[in-house]
Amino acid sequence: MSQKPAHTEKPTNQPISALAIKGSISGVLMGLANLVPGVSAGAVLLATGIFQAFLNGLAELTTFKFRRNSIILLGFLGMGWVLAVLLGAGFVKQLVVDYRWIMYSIFIGLTLGGVPLVYGPADKKSRSMWVGAAIGFLIMAALGLVQMFAGLGASGQSATWWLLVIGGVLAAGATVLPGGSGTFVLLLMGLYVPILAGVSSFKDALVARDLGSAFTVALTLAPFAIGMLVGLCSVSVALKWTLAKFPQATMGVLLGLLIGSVVALWPFQTGVRPAVGDVVKGRILTEQSLAALKPDDWPVAFFGPSVVQVLIALALIVVALVLTVLLARAEEKLGGGGV
User: Fold this and answer.
1) How many domains does the chain have?
2) What is the per-residue pLDDT across 172-229, written as a single tens digit (0 to 9) for each?
3) What is the mean pLDDT of residues 241-250?
């Protein structure tokens, strides 16, 4: 029995204004999603009805095919994304640094709220779907356990150029996947806070009209941007092919990745001020360097929560989950969920 692709889209010749509005709104929502670990930018594209058009547009660009609709849609989507990231990076980063366990609880709820979006289109009777889900879960859960016991998610990790390239490739790839979170990948690799801090610094330099500083920050972020471009193009082409050829197995893997990502989002983590002699970012701290060290770069450690903190965390998880599900249903009723 043949399987039907999970997502299809009829070709349309929409006016430029409609493409611009839809692309801009989707781009802003995608940018905001990219700032929050656990929130799927790919799922946002799915909900706004341009997921397939997004994949098709990127696939066309990789083969140097330039269609008007694709260029306009991707162009306005990109501008909306950049605007949201520039305006929101500093604020979201500070919330994570100052209120880590609260934000992680919200991230867990947002992540679990995306499960119905991926689980809904899947064929529950399909063995390939369940096998894919198991594989996806084991992969993401293993990464989460590595983070918890090896400290790979610590925000004080040194961000070398090659790590930024790899992070860009993996984050962009996860961003394209409905249910995947590129920001979660950055969190796992210890790049989440450094990247947001860099984007915030770039925005501040532009506002201050300090072009020299803006150029310097842009150079440090360039490897990450290059990695993102490579990841977006390669993964979009691969995902378009797998959704067409193996839709249920692909949706199963996406579902497993989504559920498994919760493992590394254990909420009860906090930044710990290091001491003189500790190694942070590959340097042994002196009194001077310790005084200049920002909380962004403090290593992260787990702590034993109080009963009140556990109850607050559970409440935040439930609220975030319910809000995500309700939002998805509202978008579907408004006609935004179809692709």
Assistant:
1) 1
2) 887 877 666 787 778 767 787 788 778 888 888 888 888 888 898 888 889 999 998 8
3) 84
Residue 200's closest CA among 223, 174, 226, 220? 220
pTM attached to this predicted model? 0.64
Q: How far apart are CA 321 and CA 329, in angstroms?
A: 13
CB 165 within 8 A of CB 131: no
Strands 269-271, 300-302: pairing is antiparallel
DSSP designation for 265: G
- Classify 179 in phi/psi space as left (phi over 0), alpha (psi -120 to 50) or beta: left
| Strand segments (E) across the chain | 269-271, 279-280, 283-284, 300-302
| Cα 29–chain centre separation | 12
Task: Look up the domain containing 226 and give its range.
Answer: 92-270+293-327
d(CA 72, CA 86): 21
Residue of 6, 23, 2 lying closest to 338 (CA atoms): 6
Q: How far apart are CA 43 and CA 40, in angstroms?
A: 5
Q: Is 245 exposed, middle or buried (0-12, 13-18, 19+ CB in 10 A)?
A: exposed
48: in domain: no
280 has which bridge partners? 283
What is the three-class DSSP state of 270? Answer: strand
Is residue 338 included in any domain, yes or no?
Answer: no
| CA gyration radius, the chain | 20
CA 243 to chain centre: 20
Residue burial 81-108, b: 16+ Cβ < 10 Å; e: rest = beebbbebbbebbbebbeebbbbbbbbb
pLDDT digits 0-9 by tens, 20-37: 887 888 888 788 777 776
β-bridge partners, 301: 270
DSSP state of 264: G
Could you tell me if residue 60 is inside a domain?
A: no
Q: For residue 176, which amino acid is it?
A: V
106 within a domain of the structure (yes/no) = yes
Count how many residues are written for the chain: 339
